[in-house]
Amino acid sequence: MPLASPAVVTFDENERVSPRDFGVERVVIVEDDVAVASGLTAILESEGVEVRVVGRGREAMHAVERFDPDVVIIDISLPDIDGTAVYETLAARWPAIRVIFSTGHADETNLPQVKSERVGFLRKPYGIETLFAKLREVVATARVPEAAQYAMSSSPSPK
Question: Beta strands 99-103 and 119-123: pairing type?
């Protein structure tokens, strides 16, 4: 069955766009800083996005499996395991997973060297519009290939 062409969606730069407008309905946040997790949760839930938060990397697999998110936001510096290891574990099981790494590190050498259209990076602190733009970016760039990735995966996949 041929893959459908991606829909071209344009947004007026002056119009406020919600993550739900471009298909983000469920997000898992992997963040040990309660203030950051609470802030992200409040922002996303105010836009109608369902959110699940886990504070440790080892909890991420279970959260993704149970919640089936559109995007996972992962803090790079977690108390139990590195955020990059969390991503690698998730991507091994769900190749089409979309991830945004969130970091407070200003040093580029500390960032994971992940090359994927499904992965984005945000440097803390970031604003609401920056968050929404990054969500839109990882969702929009992953639309066409994801159907093929899901078909190849024997495990249930996040959206």
Answer: parallel
Question: Domains in the chain, start-ordered, CATH in brackets?
Answer: 20-106+113-151 (3.40.50.2300)
pLDDT of 12 above 60: no
Q: How far apart are CA 31 and CA 60, in angstroms?
A: 10
Q: Tens of pLDDT along 91-145?
A: 999 999 999 999 886 545 555 566 677 888 899 999 999 999 999 999 987 554 4
Query: Encoding tokens for residue 12?
Result: 């007026």
Alpha-carbon torsion, ordered 36, 41, 43, 45, to 10 deg: 180
75 exposure class (CB count in 10 Å sphere: 0-12, 13-18, 19+): buried
Is residue 46 within a helix (H) or strand (E), and if so which, with residue range? helix 34-46
